[in-house]
Amino acid sequence: MPRVSLRRSTAFRLALTFGTLVILAFALAGGVSYRLLNQELAHRLDDSVNETYSVVASTYAKDDVEDLIAAINTYASLTTADRSLFAVEDKQGRRLAGNFTPPLLPDGLSTIESEDVGLGDGGVYRIRAGTIDGTRLIVGESFDEVQRLSRVQLVSLLWAALFAVVTAVGGGIFLAIRAQSRLDAVAGTMFDVSNGQLDRRIPLLGNGDDIDVVSRQINSSLDQLSSLVEGMRQVSADIAHELKTPLNRLKMTLDQAVDTGERGGDVAGLLQEARAEGDQINATFDALLRISQIEAGARKRRFQNVDLASVVALIGEIYVDVAGDAGQQLLVVSSSPDRDVVVGDRELLTQMLVNLVENAIRHCPEGSTIRIELTRKNEEVIVVVSDDGPGIPLDEHDKVFRRLYRLDKSRTTPGSGLGLSLVRAIADLHGATIKLEDNKPGVRVTIALPAKH
After folding, report:
1. With contact defined as beta carbons under 8 Å apart, do 197 and 33 qualify?
2. Cβ atoms 104, 87 nearer than 8 A
3. 420-452, pLDDT tens digit by residue?
4. Are 110 and 127 contacting, i.e. CB atoms less than 8 angstroms apart?
5. Cα gap 137→158, rounded to integer Å
6. DSSP assignment of 83-120, as one string?
7. More confident position, 105 or 10
8. More confident residue, 217 or 26
């Protein structure tokens, strides 16, 4: 069986698409968080510079620059120029104290390069400049701490992105392989079935996922297919077996008629026998064709509301005399007629019940009682046809619904063995369940049809 390449499989493409979306979503979220953190760090640096400027400026007293100079020298001695900048200038722009010589700066916050202040180490500073009674106060802090935290975050995001990529791709490939293996099992099963292994079924995990649901539906279809194929095989064998005898009888009758005709004898009686045998063979094939049409669902377009109580009453009225002629008793027990409406084909439903009644009359001895009971239970209309005759062995209950199947004790009676097959086909067409039970003595056939809502 040819297998689909993993790279071309739908499962792999879905996994790859999902992995790509995860990576893109992570990259977008990481980029946004990186930008927001940098903005927050920049705001905090501005707050720190402003706070330092305010603290230093608070040491100035009117016309007393000495305290301000002392404060600047103290702050400058506690740090290095690569981290913090402090300077005080007089009105002429001469530096009075501090650890750097500031360039010309506007009041407020600004950003300068280290080359601008003669440090030359490639650093960047956030500067706050202001004038106090003509004296210039400049305070600044390096972006080094902000940049270090940004690098840490960036490296963390890159490692997280790498982990996300590996997880998404690896997990996607794992899920794709797992899904593809299950799809390969489906394809393998269908390949085996197409090669005649009708007993093959798709293995189920039992977790109720979508593949399990589809596999269960396919298995159900394969069960039906296997049943139909087995039914066709059985029908073919039964036709060959059951029709061989009447065809041989027909041939023998015709040969006898030819011989009698050549001797100048009367062949009318033999031709009548041959015609009757031919009629029986035609009736058998007509019944087989009728069952096939019913199973194909062609009669569903004729469905309408059917009052099953009236059907049962009509059958009881017609067959009560037939049963009486056979020395039997036919009883009809029906519930309220306005609650026994089903949706179906009236002709087929009548045929179904007629077959059951005729079957009981044919196989029950004199003195037997045949009952037709009609009841409504919840959302079902239930029809029961029972008798107290010889019954059917338990191991034959499933077999009697097969086409052309006849019990050994029934082979001496007229019939084709298609009556109960037709009953099963009509019941299935109407979505009904049919059950054959031992009536102790006799047979009890229960048919439950969906009631009209």
Report:
1. no
2. no
3. 888 888 888 888 899 988 888 889 999 999 887
4. yes
5. 42
6. TEEEEEE-TTS-EEEESS------SEEEEEEGGGGT--
7. 105
8. 217
What is the band of 373 on the pLDDT scale with cuts at 50, 70, 90? very high
Instruction: Give the pLDDT of residue 303.
Output: 85
Buried b (16+ CB within 10 A) or exposed e, 241-264: ebbeeeeeebeebbeebeebeeee
Task: Cis check for the bond before 441: say yes or no (omega within 30 of 0).
Answer: yes
CA distance 370 to 301: 33
CB-based contact 381:448 (threshold 8 Å): yes
Reduced to 3 states (helix: H, G, I; strand: E, B; else coil), residue 282 is: helix
pTM to 2 decimal places: 0.49
Other beta carbons within 10 angstroms of residue 38's beta carbon come to: 16
pLDDT digits (tens, 9 = 90+) for 25-35: 888 888 888 88
Q: For residue 73, which amino acid is it?
A: N
Number of residues written out for the chain: 453
